[in-house]
Amino acid sequence: MFYSDELIEEVRLRNDIVDVISGYVKLQRKGSSYFGLCPFHNEKSPSFSVSPQKQMYYCFGCGAGGNVFTFIRQYENYSFPEALKLLADRAGITLPEEDESAENRRRRDLRTAVLEVNKMAGKYYYYLLRTEQGARAMAYLKDRGLTDETIRSFGLGYAGRYSDQLSRYLKQQGVSDSLLKESGLVQISEKQGMYDKFWNRVMFPIMDVNSRVIGFGGRVMGDAKPKYLNSPETVIFDKGRNLYGLHAARSSRKKYMLVCEGYMDVIAMHQAGFTNAVASLGTALTAQHASLLKRYTNEVILTYDSDEAGVRAALRAIPLLREAGIMTRVLHMEPYKDPDEFIKALGKETFQERIDQAQNSFLFEISVLEKSYNMEDPEGKTRFCREAARRIADFEQEIERENYIEAVAAKYQVSFEGLRKMVMSWLLQGAFVRKKPVRREDAPKKDEGIRKSERLLLSWLLEYPRLYPAVSSRIAPEDFSDGLYRKVAELLYRQLESGQTNTAWIVDQFEDPEEQKAIAEIFNTEVRVGSVKETEKAVLESMRKVMQNAVEEKGRRLDPSDIAGLQELIAAKRKIQELNGLHISL
Q: Do 361 and 377 share a structural domain?
């Protein structure tokens, strides 16, 4: 759904950032800003600031920052439309509904109805678990070491002992046969007619990121097959696009996600305090799962079973996560099979130690590769090195290749130079194929001194608008060194031309949370560097540095035959010299 800039701005204006954040963080006024403990990292001294004037927040500890939309997205792990709706509801603003075709309306109504049926089924399973009929299922969960609180928080239940128990109950509640079929909670055969998909099983509700029940997993309590049974795909349930436990894990304050194989592993880890654990739903990790994880984290630790199947699952998952831009490590659980067993045997402190020691995913792949070769035989070791070199050559960045050459050479006691030559050989043969464009974060860092001068200059312009004529007549937005800074300068210049500034609106012009964070850093740069005179001197020095850097960049790109360009360069250098006689007043 498209929402106009005017509507988005109205929602933002009706949600004062101090009022909104006060609902999440205890704030205390200090001067013109409010401070509290940052909700995005652990700290003992308040470094999290909220500015009512700028309508922005910024943490001087971890660098988190942005406007009220950014905060809700970061804290609640919401998409922008979800954050917009929450804040619109809070302000009593009704968002316009999308014009729908009859088919779209029918599908939306069906989704709503199936969600309601699943909610009713979940409550019924939850109720049955606490009856005499569910005593065996409750005993099973208790034997697995689950507490009453854990059973409650995950909404665990029991599907009755009769194969039509749920469908009879739902029909009594007015649910039609056609809706039961759409929900996936029943099956139909010529011999049995309509019967329940789940019966006499411990039930695990599967929730989406908004904690709505979209499906179920059921586990037998004996040796019957299949051990686990999942809901079929429906209008609301796609197992390749959802992760078990994500509704709870998305609110975790950990910087990484623990990805495991089964429901019980997720639940056991959450109970032990590892609330950032999720699992795929009876299927291997998919590219869609990786994209979903990328919304919430940049780092994943694979905690798959330590058996052969678990190793294969990890090897399938690693390239998908790497392609999504997620740094991946692999946790070793030997001598135990899965996280549930490990935590029961050695405790959560030892499990945390294993998390801290988790292996780099590429080195894990190489360690698995090693098992395919006889490393005692010179020919076998050479073949291993050749294959390791081929894989190292897949890395796009030279520094990455060099680092992995060094790591593999040291671990397997081979010549660094010899391995490096093998990698270069693969590169020269054209084995290295660029899979995707270089991401912005992979681009070389600009000189931090220039970036600091540009941040200061933008902050000074915001704090002292009277500087604008002197700065804008000498420094254009395109003179800033970085694309983000150029865009911010352009927007700020436009506002200063009109005589008013709105930094929260500037943040809204960027969708990437990392860019919003960088903008918050820009406008929270300390602008006083001493006395007023010293600050005025610093302004001039920052202008000089920005102008000098712009001249150098233009000079590097200038065609020697471009006479007009050369004259512009001479004029720009003259403006730098004129700064010596310029006086500015704050």
A: no
